[in-house]
Amino acid sequence: MSATASSQVLNSVRTVGGLLPADMLLRILDGKDVPGSKPADYHVVGVRSVKDAAERRWSIVKGTWQSLRGEIGDTGHDSRGLALEHSLLPLFDEHSFGRLQPSGGIPSDDGTVVFPVSHRWRQVPIHLVPWDQDLDKRPVSGGPPPQSIVQQCLNRAESHLWAVLSNGRQLRLLRDSSSLAGTAYIEFDLEAMLDGELFDEFVLLYRMLHVSRFEVPEGAPPSACWLEKWRVEAIEAGARALDQLRDGAVSAAGQPAAVPPC
Length: 262
Hints:
Layout: E1 13-16, H1 22-30, H2 50-72, H3 82-94, E2 101-102, E3 106-107, E4 114-115, E5 119-121, E6 124-128, H4 146-155, E7 162-166, E8 170-175, E9 185-189, H5 190-195, H6 199-209, H7 226-253
């Protein structure tokens, strides 16, 4: 990595709603002091590190991206809907999801709504929308914004805790936010990452999007996945930091006042 985790600046990644703080993202990128970060935890063999595994995928993902860019042309509009087949589905394949299958819609727990999420991997909704679709705006054809569809799906279906949303230009990891104030997600700007050749930040994407981050043991709840474990670790680390600050303040308050020299 070109910089240590403590000094690294993430140019193509942002976190919204406090889902995971920036310092936790840097810890995940560094991969040294968070659990579940060894090659075996990612089901990869024959490599020295997860970064080495990510580097193998980087050349493939970058190649499909550049090919898509060439097919779309200077207009930047994907009028033929090429992004899904030529970039998005290959991206998930390189993160060990295999060939994603259409979901057929995901129902709410009360059965009153079927959310039109495009794909699904086990307990993970994966909504892939057209290249030109803004994730936060209503489609021209009508209906809620893609972000709202996925967030409501998570909030109203207990068997789904984390989800993925992407138009090929941005990719978001979302979590059930029913217990939070407002929406919460982590966004990877794929356009900035791949056009700018930000390999270090692709390593973070690989570490967080890999299928192993969503897997749970048979019969276990969705909260048993690594993404949720990392979220809990971030919360506990924040609590420990506050306790240390509080203890330091109490200790300082109990010290006798310094006597100025004569």
